[in-house]
Amino acid sequence: MVYAGDGSSTFGTNFTLNYKGGSSDILQFTGMNWFQFPSMNWGTIRTAYHHTNYTSLVNWNVTSLFQSSISVPSNVPLQSITLPVTTDSTSRMHIFALSITPSIVPPAVSGPALSVQSAQFSTRWETVGSQSAQAVAVTLVNLLPASYANVVNATVNEQYTIEVSGDGVETVTPGVFYRLVPSDQVITDVLVANNGGTGNATVTIKNAAGDVAGTSEGWPIVPLRSSWTADASVLSTHETPTWWRQAKFGIFTHWGVYSVPAYGPPSSYAEWYDWYLHNPNNSDSPTWVHHKEVYGPDVVYDDFIANFTATLFNASAWLDLFTNAGAKYFVQVTKHHDGYALFDTQNTSHRSSVYLNPYHDFLKELMDTAKSDYPDLHRGTYFSMPEWFNPYYAKYGFGEWPGGLAHNAYNWSEIEPYTGLLNVSDFLEDIQYPQMLSLALDYDTEIMWCDIGGPNMTIDFAAQFYNHAWENGYQVTMNDRCGNVPDFSTPEYAVFGSIQTRSWETNEGMDPFSYGINNQTTPDEYKNGTTIIQTLVDVVSKNGNYLLDVGPTAEGVIIPAMADNLLDAGRWLSYAGDCVYDTQYWYQAQQSPDGTFRFLTTPTTFCIVAFTKPTGANLTVDAGPGVVLPVLEGDTVRLLGPGGNGTALKWSVDDNGVMSIELNEDEVDAVDYAWAFQVEYAYASSAPSANAHLASLPISMLNSYTTLPQTVSVGYSETLGYSGAPQTAYPTSSTL
């Protein structure tokens, strides 16, 4: 489906699937809108800017259309799809194209019917020996209809390998998968040596015996890019690295001058203290009232710089906490909207902790310590693109980032100082761009996590960022708030309601409403182990990452109410992390219809994570009508717990696909927050099985069949027809 929303930054809606016999099902869908102020979305199809005049009166957002692929249960013939009815102008959905790939029942084949849906030569790579092997993401689908009664014969249940070859292209490390039930898909990386490859590649599937089970031809070869130019069409091909996709969990840190007052009224960001102090500058602002009562009208925001002491800052203590919390990367705020930076801003500005109190390059210490002592913890930097009251930003100002020096909050005729300001000519060229470049070239950040967007020179920055990383042998990524060519989107204090095939990362504070520390928040209000773990698992089940923020004190301490709860989450991840890290979403469903379970996959396992503590002797797992769990006789089911992988549990699946697991109550009682049941696949590792007959079903035929032009009249026509499709060889199993 090619679509766009029209309203808030994200939207949710429902499709109704109507089956033969009168039954129906709700298909939940969450999507992105065609724009998000100020220009933070990046769709599959994207226009240029509407306007180039950056003022608060002109809409200069871009237009984005998005693509999504959704699994439809197919054990019962689908007759029609009822599209969402949207009467609310804030939640409209536009559908520009809709195609359906039906399940098929090849009459001469009793086993799985594999189809190569895509083979994408990516910008990701891994070091294999002395070379950088390019990752080719191959997506395979089992096109047979879901039916648990026939699941054994219709399922891949042995080691299958995927190879990619072509002119100048050979496989270095094949992709591997072991289980693929009807109506399911698997995405596998094949690592190839691409020595100037040209033309089209061939995907070859082999079974456990090494026999060719099928081939698929015609996939365009794209070289592994080793040089980036300041061209949006080039930079937009960049992707999140494999390490980022596997990491799943990161720690955000908001720390700066705003940590001194550490105040925010209910449901607000404490790090916005400077803005709320001035807007509005009267008793309608709780921050204005608080400041007057606590500090008096003669104290201005920059006076807090003297109290930003950082006397207890310890880079190793922070990184120890992040590591023990189970995080695989961190993102440090280097400069927020108040313009005060925690790194050496050199000749761009001296509004920095290096040139002002406490005269310390905190970012350098944090990054250097991470490099030397925590090499497996990836390093990221947050950077605010605009500055609220920088006079040089007035030329580009918009909305809540107007630029221009602040008027005194209690005497509007006076202008407040902007401490550390240097004489420059242009904000973008002399402040924003060189500071971003310094984070990339001098501090070797691996994640450029911008905020707000707006006017920028990100095209020029991204080219240098990516080239520097390539030359130094590591891979980097950039979010959607730099204003151009992002790798991933960043919903804030929000979680998508359904699987997103594009990389995304939700971010929120340990505090229910703030990123910077807020002394108004009580210890019991911070996210506890249950909230952290269940949010993480929920996000990961939808193909996302979770960036969870802590706000240290002005002295540099992460208070126990935050640290202890992070450590609680880390203990769970220490024994159940195999159901989080390096997992993939399950294509058929991310959760059970009642929301009780989340589902995740790896090549050799399937994870069922329960959010409610199981009680009684049995646990019932229902993934929904027509959804086949990838669980077969011989598989081993264990509850992951603090004592290690638990005992093998007895289980069964009935004719409707509902799974029942016999519980070990002692093991259940030993687990907190969420209960991860890991299914380990039993498969034939060496000898050919019933799946070997796939050699008689060329995958290339299935692939060409599923990519022919499609015409669908949903809910009206009796059959779904393909012009030129071999209907007699591949009849559809359902009607529309």
From TrEMBL:
GO terms for molecular function: alpha-L-fucosidase activity. The keyword Oxidoreductase does not apply. Residues 228-577 form the Glycoside hydrolase family 29 N-terminal domain. It comes from the Eukaryota. The keyword S-adenosyl-L-methionine does not apply. Keywords: Glycosidase, Hydrolase, Signal. InterPro entries: FUC_metazoa-typ (IPR016286), GH (IPR017853), Glyco_hydro_29 (IPR000933), Glyco_hydro_29_N (IPR057739). Alpha-L-fucosidase is responsible for hydrolyzing the alpha-1,6-linked fucose joined to the reducing-end N-acetylglucosamine of the carbohydrate moieties of glycoproteins. This is alpha-L-fucosidase. It comes from Coniophora puteana (strain RWD-64-598) (Brown rot fungus).
